Amino acid sequence: MPKTPEALRSYRWYGPDNLRAFGHRSRTAQMGFDRSDYAGKPVIGILNTWSDINPCHTHFKQRVEEVKRGVWQAGGFPIELPAISLSEPFQKPSTMMYRNFLAMEAEELLRSHPVDGAVLMGGCDKTTPALVMGATSMGLPFIFMPAGPMLRGNWRGEVLGSGSDTWKYWDALRSGRITSADWQEIEEGIARSPGHCMTMGTASTMTSAAEALGLTLPGASSIPAADSGHARMATQTGKRIVDMVWEDMLPAQLLTAAAFDNAIVTVLALGGSTNAVIHLIAMARRAGVPLTLDRFDELARHTPIIADLRPAGRFLMEDFYYAGGLRALLARIGHLLSLDCLTVNAQTLGENIADAKSFNDEVIRPLSRPLLQQDGIAVLRGNLAPDGAVIKPGAAQASLLRHTGPAIVFESRADLAARIDDPSLPVSADSVLVLRNAGPLGAPGMPEWGQLPIPRKLLAEGVSDMVRISDSRMSGTSYGACILHVAPESYIGGPLALVRDGDLIALDVPARSLNLLVDDAELARRRAEWKRPPPHHGRGYGRLFETHVTQANEGCDFDFLEGTAPTSEPDIY
Ligand code: FES
User: Fold this and answer.
1) Ligand 1, atom 2: closest residue by C-alpha
2) Model pLDDT for residues 396-448, shown as the tens digit of each residue
3) pTM for the structure as a whole
4) Whose CA is nearest to atom 3 of ligand 1?
5) What's the Cα-to-Cα distance from 310 to each of 243, 351, 485, 508, rounded to whole Å?
6) Which CATH number applies to 378-529?
7) DSSP code, position 342
8) Which residue has the higher pLDDT, 464 or 196?
9) CB neighbours of 152 closer than 8 A, spacing ≥ 6?
């Protein structure tokens, strides 16, 4: 039964014949709109994460006009609501510190304004989960408009990929294989257009996950930001949200346990970022789906990686789009998906991909020739990670997936930076590098420090990968035998806090284990000596963060934002 105009949420602001509604109408008139512009129409809040300092969203100033065009055409009333842009390259100490900030902002922007439905404009890493988390908690109809990937990078005719080639050529510079002049040319060629990172990093992973969850129009996440199809998608997104309001299509209808399984399988088949583990757990818990780390491991055991995309593979998102994009990939793994899940266009996922085809079997591999048969992400447990840790086996040197070696411990990022290239560091290719105090509370903000650099003297010997362990995260564009998200983290006394130089650490990815080979009595003695460091912040948002953030295996949400308790409606007086 479609909604009536009187049943619209915004009617409470605009409809009544009282003093307060007079104020809302007269102030809307002040902005140049008369009653025919909005009366009886769905008011669409467009959460725009544009800013002058987010290079991934530079086109959002234009795209928001295209979204508005769609909203007007469909008979809605668009209002743009700017939100913090979470610029991955610039915001310190880490945008992860502010993911929950944007989630709160999204929820409160929607709650406190006369909004009937929302378009969420995001793409740069944390913006996707943050906007979805906030809008899910608010519970109004919403649709996600992904920013789209930037075009391929270029250096002297060589294709450059965001992040991956930064690390690759940084190591080349450090070991003298390229010059400073070469490095500067790469600096100017690696990011050539609007749009988010174009490798299968966190941004591409999370926008694809949003599409697999049914939160975008079909195919939307793969369209390059600079393609005219992206502008058309923005307009279609604006049109569709108006109908979603009339149909009262609520997030709870879309965000089911089966939809989250679809998102996980999609991330795995894409060779997506380990960051998705944290974000999807947080998003699911907002939707009332009790997702745990173990579900990732279970699904990984029978999901092949078929997207040959960097950092795991060879190609970039622009190639993926030309190859058919996410719809083509989903069609190929359709047997692993719940195809009856509803999506924002009122069709099922299965209907949306029914006619999808792959046009390039190198980019989207057939099931008979996957990049990796299984284990896109593996969850490890053991006495070093009782609540879990993750690794991307496909991004690691195969010989390191079963490895025992002596630890070299760095207390902090600063300690790491000071000593990693010291010629006297007693390190060999067999060493296990350990970084602690890099987790949600320890850093704080759980930055992407998990791809610890290979010591310069080992690089010179040709060593390209080592086992590295931390309680931090890793950029989705990174690679290597990096064990991440160790929980509980060292800062709160997780076992990582007890490791000492020279202790043997045993990693066995096939057995899913990570253990410190030190006896229990010695560990108990070390624990008795351990003291928790003082908090980093005495006041402000940092204090709020440190008081309420949960551990990596729980999604790093704030404890008071989790769950599905209804968001209360504001009094209007
Ligand atoms: Fe925005 Fe990578 S910097 S997605």
Assistant:
1) 197
2) 999 999 999 999 999 999 999 999 999 999 999 999 999 999 999 999 999 99
3) 0.97
4) 88
5) 37, 29, 22, 25
6) 3.50.30.80
7) B
8) 196
9) 159, 160, 161, 192, 198, 316, 318, 319
For 518-569, the pLDDT digits (tens) are: 999 999 999 999 999 999 999 999 999 999 999 999 999 999 999 898 888 9
Using alpha carbons, list the distances in angstroms from residue 404 to 65, 99, 263, 461: 56, 36, 34, 21
Q: Are 298 and 334 in contact (CB under 8 A)?
A: no
Sketch the domain layout of the chain as residue ranges: 41-151+193-353, 154-189, 378-529
Domain 41-151+193-353 coded CATH 3.40.50.2300: yes
What pLDDT digit, counting tens, does each position of 133-159 carry?
Answer: 999 999 999 999 999 999 999 999 999
Side-chain half-sphere exposure of 209, counting CA atoms within 13 A: 36
For residue 211 and ligand 1, the question of a CB distance below 6 A is answered with no
Determine the distance separating the centroid of ligand 1 and the alpha carbon of 79, expressed in angstroms: 26
Which residue in this structure is represented by tokens 């079997």? 361
Please indicate whether residue 203, judged by its CB atom, sits closer than 6 Å to ligand 1.
Answer: yes
Residue in 85, 86, 88, 99 to alter for ligand 1 test, most ligand atoms within 8 A of Cβ: 88
